[in-house]
Amino acid sequence: MIAIDRYAEWFKATALPFWQQRAWDPQSGGFLESVNLDGSPVFGDSRRVRTQARQVYVFARSHLAGWCNGHDLAVDGYALLEQRAKAPDGQDGWVHRLTDTGAVESPIRDLYDHTFILLAQAWLFRLTGDARYRHEADSLLAYLDREFADPAGGYAESLGGPQLPRRQNPHMHFFECMLAWHEVSGDQSYLDRAEAVLELLGSYFIDQAGGYLVEFFDRTWRPDESDDGIVVEPGHELEWVWLLDAYQRTGRSVSDEMATRLFQHAHEFGLNRHTGFMMSASTSAGRPIEGGSRTWVQTEWLRGALARHRCGASGALAQAEVAATQLLKWHIDPAIRGGWIDSVDARGSQTADRIPASTFYHLLGVVLDVEKTG
Question: Which of 289, 293, 317, 368 is the most buried (most CB within 10 A)?
């Protein structure tokens, strides 16, 4: 596991110190949305609430793992985000986007954002032992049940924003944060909520004939085809692979067939044959839509392969080593120490002009899975 171990060491010894020094906005507070490729701060851009919540999560979990002193960054980051983004207009829920000085830029209530608020709250609860984080999370879940619940199943995309297409992705992250809340609390009710998303996965998100993950839907969960056909994102297929493994390890039962088919489809149709990395998006038959790579797609490939290895799948550890090699080759090694080249095109040429902070959440996830694998 040469490449896997080298990646894990890079994250702990290089990336975490890099971001501890650069994550916080020294002018207006809060976490920067991105830094320049040389590591200098980017001021004046919008601040997505989900990015702020992801950074809270990263520093909370990294502190708990003993990899950095992230306690104050996590606690202070959440406190400032709560002050700025939670019901600033007197309406329930968290707004979608802030200016870099903390003013509300978009008051939309977005499902995807709220899933990461829930994830941050879970690990702040574990970090501090403060029960108010659990109270806030349960209040937020009640809000989603009350305001976002959709008669066709699942949750609406947003309040005050676009409703279509419906997406599997926010529901996948809702599943993730329910697993997190079960992990930090032991409460089985969170797994019951996760199980409701599994029903959507089995009934709608996975195409039963092709075994691939559908991204976009109409109001009643019928696949929404673009001009290119049905859009498939291999990174999300692989993300579900490790999430299904995590669910199985709670003691609840889930068929291994879903993870097996998703993993196989991603490998059969998602690889860029010219570069060797996992591409960003294709049709269900493997015709490239976005043949380039994002950093997060390669991290999910690596996490999915490690999960399959833990399940005893033949050759999965070797595939994980290939994924780590691709992640290092195209995204980590060409960048400033501690940063990454976040996107390359289908031939491997760099297209990123900044280092987005939101990706740090994905990079942490790999190390967590390496630790689980041993």
Answer: 293
Residue 107 has pLDDT above 80, yes or no: yes
CATH code 1.50.10.10 for 2-372: yes
Residue 122 tokens read as 């879970």
Contacts of 39 (CB under 8 A, 6+ apart): 18, 22, 336, 338, 339, 355
User: Is residue 135 within 8 Å of 187, Cβ to Cβ?
Assistant: no
Decide the pairing of beta strands 158-159 and 216-217: unpaired
Measuring CA to CA, how many Å separate 323 from each of 212, 263, 298, 299, 306? 20, 13, 6, 8, 10
Contact status, residue 272 vs residue 279, Cβ threshold 8 Å: yes
Domain positions in the chain? 2-372
Q: What is the pLDDT of residue 249?
A: 96
Using CA atoms, how far apart are residues 58 and 364, in angstroms rounded to an integer? 7
User: Rounded to an integer, what distance in angstroms lies between the CA atom of residue 57 and that of residue 62?
Assistant: 8
pLDDT in tens, 66-98: 999 999 999 999 999 999 999 999 999 999 999
